[in-house]
Amino acid sequence: xxxxxxxxxxxxxxxxxxxxxxxxxxxxxxxxxxxxxxxxxxxxxxxxxxxxxxxxxxxxxxxxxxxxxxxxxxxxxxxxxxxxxxxxxxxxxxxxxxxxxxxxxxxxxxxxxxxxxxxxxxxxxxxxxxxxxxxxxxxxxxxxxxxxxxxxxxxxxxxxxxxxxxxxxxxxxxxxxxxxxxxxxxxxx
Amino acid sequence: xxxxxxxxxxxxxxxxxxxxxxxxxxxxxxxxxxxxxxxxxxxxxxxxxxxxxxxxxxxxxxxxxxxxxxxxxxxxxxxxxxxxxxxxxxxxxxxxxxxxxxxxxxxxxxxxxxxxxxxxxxxxxxxxxxxxxxxxxxxxxxxxxxxxxxxxxxxxxxxxxxxxxxx
Lengths: 189, 167
Fold this sequence. Notes:
Order of helices and strands of chain A: HHHHHHHHH
Structural class of chain B: alpha+beta
Number of helices of chain B: 6
Shape of chain B: elongated
Number of helices of chain A: 9
Strand order of the largest sheet of chain B: 1-2-3-4
Shape of chain A: elongated
Largest interface: A-B, 38 and 31 residues
Largest sheet of chain B: 4 strands, antiparallel
Distance between the termini of chain A: 50 Å
Strand content of chain A: under 5%
Distance between the termini of chain B: 103 Å
Number of strands of chain B: 4
Helix content of chain B: 40-55%
Structural class of chain A: mainly alpha
Oligomer: heterodimer
Radius of gyration of chain A: 19 Å
């Protein structure tokens, strides 16, 4: 029965009737995306799982403050985002405002002459990861949500507490940097 | 459609995200004429496709769900702690205080008590001014009368403090 319900219906059932099965179903639906999102931010699976658990515990505790007309997924990601930012602050994460060009360029130089196609795909994945990792946390989050968690711009905007235009311009900025790096690698438009 | 408007819409165009104000035909018409915008679109598309190159999703450990259930039991469903044991807390507080005094250096403690006594006692008990006798013949002994106790501070090479109940 629970599998046919929307996220919002499930959470309403949990918040109002204390339906624990509904909560478990929400965890089952979203835990992989939440762990993946956090993992891409902190690059440590055990920390990512720990923070994902903290996210679901906060959802459990804050059931009373959920507004039923608000979509569930952006709310869940907002809490995950806040957990990540808090963790990064605790760990004295250094906010990088610019790409670490030396790191990226070294990677490109090492990979530029590989002729094999699958190896090239692997190189591209490496460059994508390097470019995404070198962005400031909030820009990085927007790219991850858009391209890895398949969220809509409107959902990302709600999660990040900004306008859709801001999300789009940040995604555009990230893609431009990636495009420059790919061109250095020899992939011309 | 000018270059500025086209570039503004390129992300939606490349991601094929149809919004109400996206006029695909006009964008394509512009791209067929403007080499700069066409190049910008192609580089954006390459970056966009590259972002999709990594579609792997990290696999959580099998322990995730049980660990979450454990934490929910501990942090959300745990019974409230019983009220604090006040006499026990008082005992603990006193023993902590004695422990602190034990490790204090006596000269510093004595000096602190004397200074506090001089400044605090007259203000708290204005009618009972502490009788402080400083003997000029024996300037090395200082006697202070507190409201309930009195103290002698013997000033020598080492300062020491003796407290006895008031008679």
